């Protein structure tokens, strides 16, 4: 079959159409608004949050589970002028907005900002209540993805997501498998006042920032073998874990403040809160971060002590850990915690194999 060649007229029409699209795009980008425009995704640090992490939808979820989709949508429509209550991710989102405000002061035309996306499998009809709630709290969230009951995971890469926060463990697991930093959000048992001028993010080390390679040795061979292993490989960087890229993104934004001599007033502060011992196994962690070209503002080596009391002093907007007993301990003392379901730790509960516990 012979190839159909474009005529000069076709080429002319296509060129005219491309010019029209370029003109329309330029017009849209030059529109003025008092409300900050979202940054271009290729420059932004994109944070995708589910509706159930941003807002407390416990009552609405109960209607969905007990009465079905139609009653759930009806309830949302009937109450769409009533704002939803803040959820676990709400303080974190507010803190992201504070950082953006500072960045815009220093870089008025800058695009390297946080971009918050509402990523939900809610029906579009529920969107009105979500939008009304976002406007009620004056949140800067312009990008929505409402998938009408389908999993939104496939859209995360399209939105160039740097971090995904959800209440759904299955979706979070799927995101991590796709190489996207993700965690399951938990609201604390008691409310704690948080900083309104600085974003505070706390990370566990193994199986969060780093791979679970060292944790496997602890679980399978004990602490003494682990200490020997870490000493032997002290100068060999650990492999990266699921949240390494998010720490890197935070570090890049911190450098924007450092470049303006704002290190001491930087509105982003990062913390490493690890069960490792400093003298016995801490050097490899710090050398790994150095090899990645990353800084951590504060490093706390607890040598197996509970993390809750230290986190209570730090008061992070979010704390990432791979083990649920650390998450529970953090929650009990008022810390917003996010579980990273990754690595060998998922097979254990408080140091014991879950399969063994089930057999008892």
Automatic annotation (TrEMBL):
Q: Compositionally biased, Basic and acidic residues: which spans?
A: 8-21
| Region Disordered: start-end pairs | 1-21
Where is it found, in Gene Ontology cellular component terms?
A: cytosol
A Pfam short name: 5-nucleotidase
- Family matches, as InterPro entries: 5-nucleotidase
Please cite one Gene Ontology biological process associated with this protein: adenosine metabolic process
The GO terms describing molecular function are: 5'-nucleotidase activity; magnesium ion binding; nucleotide binding
Q: Where are the transmembrane segments?
A: none
Q: What is this protein called?
A: 5'-nucleotidase
Species, as recorded: Danionella cerebrum
